[in-house]
TrEMBL record:
Belongs to the non-flavoprotein flavin reductase family. Keywords: Oxidoreductase. Residues 12-158 form the Flavin reductase like domain. InterPro entries: Aldolase_TIM, Flavin_Rdtase-like_dom, NADH-dep_flavin_reductase, Split_barrel_FMN-bd. PANTHER family: FLAVIN REDUCTASE (PTHR30466), FLAVIN-DEPENDENT MONOOXYGENASE, REDUCTASE SUBUNIT HSAB (PTHR30466:SF11). GO terms for molecular function: FMN binding; riboflavin reductase (NADPH) activity. This is Flavin reductase (DIM6/NTAB) family NADH-FMN oxidoreductase RutF.
Length: 340
């Protein structure tokens, strides 16, 4: 005896998935719908699948056109997901006001999607009240780097990072050991030349680029572009520095770091927080929750502003995140009690 449909839908709602917009063309122009029933099928040849309800116009149009495209949505595009799911009733033209490009197969894709695929229909299989379309991928692109949009239990969401296994620290006041080539920048222009970075690496130095005032909400796009430029330059570590003048909010720290952690790979992402901010430890926790495990801190008696080493170690211990004993040793006996 089959399970009842209500229970079945509730169970399936517990499975999180990405969100995409499936588009195709028809006699009356462009057509699209939101779908979460997308899956990869094969790498060689490249095949994907999408399941469409037999009652939907998209199912008929896609079958007749023999082609479709998939636009993967980013975390900031839930409004597009709702639009193409028909949840914004006042919108009559779902494509209006959005920036589209046409694929070689003649299907529209979002120019600012996380990624897109251009497909021709290779197979169409009956699947109960749905049709399973298998698409042969002919083109693919990654327009921008951003965390994906998720759908879970009938709600829109985004990726949440687990706490790191350990935290690593570096004393902001410590002198350069001669093995690090460090520089500060406030934008993607005026960076060291690729030749200079290559020479530093060849000499055995780690290349570390810091973005100043990284959590200013008015500079979000510029900061993320700078982080991407530092990654392209080949930095081993990329740091985000909080302004001493304008305290960072946990929300803005989240907005920057959840994208930065993706853009810096394979480099290490560092964070330097301002210790005078009352929300400093909250921001440190937010940074950890967004995948950051490397922090610049200030040891006792350093006489400079910054996140105190003792505070960060205390936080990490309360979260059961392993702390850096070697950093505490280097800081001297004043921090010995933190390891007791």
């Amino acid at each position: 005896m089959p399970v009842d449909s209500t229970t079945f839908r509730s169970v399936l709602g517990q499975w999180p998935s990405g969100v995409c917009v499936v588009t195709t063309t028809g006699p009356n122009g462009l057509h699209g719908m939101t779908a979460s029933s997308f899956s990869s099928v094969s790498l060689d040849p490249p095949l994907v699948s999408v399941c469409l309800g037999n009652h939907l116009p998209s199912r008929t149009l896609l079958g007749e056109a023999g082609k479709f495209a998939i636009s993967f949505l980013g975390k900031d595009q839930a409004h597009i997901g709702r639009r193409f799911a028909g949840q914004d009733r006042e919108i009559t033209d779902r494509f209006a006001g959005l920036d589209w490009i046409m694929t070689p197969n003649g299907c529209p894709v979002l120019s600012d999607a996380v990624a897109w695929l251009d497909c021709t229909v290779a197979h169409a299989y009956p699947g109960g009240d749905h049709t399973i379309f298998v698409g042969a991928v002919t083109e693919a692109a990654l327009p921008r780097v951003i965390s994906p949009l998720l759908f879970h239990s009938r709600n829109w969401g985004q990726v949440a990072q687990p706490l790191p296994a350990t935290v690593q620290v570096r004393d902001t006041a410590s002198p350069n050991d001669g093995l690090r080539f460090e520089f500060l920048t406030d934008g993607p222009h005026g960076l060291p030349s690729p030749d200079r970075v290559a020479a530093a690496k060849q000499a055995g130095n780690s290349v570390v680029g810091y973005v100043t005032d990284a959590f200013d909400p008015d500079r979000e796009d510029e900061v993320l572009a700078t982080i991407a430029a530092l990654g392209a330059l080949g930095c081993d570590e990329i740091g985000c520095i909080e302004s001493d003048v304008t305290p960072a909010s946990p929300l803005q720290v989240t907005r920057i770091l959840q994208d930065a952690i993706v853009r810096v790979r394979p480099a290490v992402l560092r964070v330097r927080l301002a210790g005078h901010n009352r929300l400093a430890l909250v921001n440190a926790l937010v940074a950890m929750k967004n995948g950051v495990s490397h922090f610049d801190v200030v040891a006792p008696g350093a006489g400079i502003a910054g996140l105190p080493l003792g505070d960060l170690l205390h936080l990490s211990r309360q979260l059961e995140v392993a702390g850096p004993n070697d950093a505490a040793d280097a800081a001297g006996p004043d921090l010995a009690h933190l390891r007791e």
